[in-house]
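Researcher: We're teaching a course module on how sequence relates to structure. For the next exercise, students receive a sequence and then see the predicted structure as tokens, so they can try to spot secondary structure elements on their own. Here is the exercise chain.
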Amino acid sequence: MSKKLLAPAACLAAALALTSCSGGDGDDAGNAVTVTANSTDRVPVDAVVAAFQEANPGIEVTVTYADTDQLQSTLRTQLSSGTAPDVFTVWPGNGNPAALQLLAPGGFLADLSGAGFASRIPEGDRPVTEYEGSTYIVPVTYSGIGVIYGKEALAALGAEEPATWSELIELCGTARDEGVSLLALGNQTPWVTQLVTYALAATTVYTDTPDFDERMAEGETSFADSGWKAALEQYLEMEEEGCFNDDPLGTSYEASVSSVAQGRAVGLVQVATTLSQVQSEAGDAELGMFALPATDDADQTLMPGSVSAAYGLNAESADSEAAMAFVEFLGSPEGQDIYATEGGTLTALPDEERETDPALTTLTDYQGQGRTVPFMDQRWPNPRVQQTHFTVVQQLFAGDITVDEALAEMDAAYRTE
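Model: And here is the predicted structure for the students to work with:
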């Protein structure tokens, strides 16, 4: 899933300023590391850099931040021209221009297989951190998609977290009868459209076909002939059953967060990093998170959970030794803890001794039990599939296309060279 949450605008000049960061004479660059990070990660990255420089006073680290679209659109050009930074945000898996599977084949990323953290990457995350069996990114945080909700709001309905599809639908009606929405939905914001589908497809697709992504890549199945059809049909059923607020297509991400914080909705389906945004608006309200059920067998429920923030090392870094030291710090228990704590999420490399936000208990449990699947777009062959998914969900909610037509468009995007 593309990380486009609350990205504050970063000026294009700042992104382009990186053109003088790397390449050139290594003698002039001694013990200086340049980093490009997503603007959404400014707080945790600043904290990690401060801790790293305290431990390594002889290495100067300079960070430039860019928002998602700018970073993705400029990074490939900078790498091709030899002007990219030493260390930079890389999206796990595939699905966008700055993703691992698009950068590694071009020789832009240094092989990190020998790094100390590489052996600690969970088996389930290796498909989105490796290319041809070698590790090319350091995974830093782990996030998931589920229902973030206010515990007091749910208790006011006399209800508990629904564990089955039938319980979910029944709870939607209970909430409506009490004058609130069970789930706020901001489908006016394109990237939000994917989240409910992902949360449902984790179960409808991967419970029965855990090798779905491999079969898709081999042309042995399709979106149309899989549990993706059930996921989209259930998405629309939730709309018909009144699970969401009125007019999701006229509601933004920001408005959906405010609906939960202000008590107009019990919760919303979002990535775990949104917990901090809801909490900042909700004040002292206690929040929780649960996996969105898609069947009436709670044991079948899976949860989208995967590496979120990750970084790569420029294969042509002007100071590879210092840059590698920073990458190793990102993969160390200390670096992971600082990043996750400041970012309000989980570490990518599990640490049983680390205390986490109680609201993330479900995600932690699912991660530990091996009941998560990577964000779906991380395994897609090109960025067009995700963009098509955004569009068809909005069209489905507008009543402009059918589920079969939506899936046909996604299949066509997947097969486009």
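Model: If you want an answer key for the exercise: Confidence is low (pLDDT under 50) at residues 1-29. Residues 383-398 form the longest helix (16 residues).
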